[in-house]
Write a structure and sequence with these properties.
The protein has 60 residues and is mainly alpha-helical. The protein has 1 helix and no strands.
Length: 60
């Protein structure tokens, strides 16, 4: 192998490593977004239940 080929192979290794790192970061961010959406949905459901319970108390 020539030194140019070695240089290219090294650059490819570095880029592959960076690509894996970016994909992992993306996966973590997507999970955080999903978790936040889940939390928001749970809070919304809790509020609806609370409002529903308040309505039934007042209408009784």
């Amino acid at each position: 192998m020539t030194s140019k080929e070695d240089e290219y192979r090294e650059k490819i290794k570095v880029l592959d490593s960076k690509d894996r790192e970016l994909k992992e970061r993306e996966r973590i961010l997507e999970q955080r977004i999903k978790d936040e959406h889940d939390k928001m949905a749970q809070d919304k459901i809790k509020n609806l239940i609370r409002l529903s319970l308040q309505k039934t108390r007042y209408s009784s």
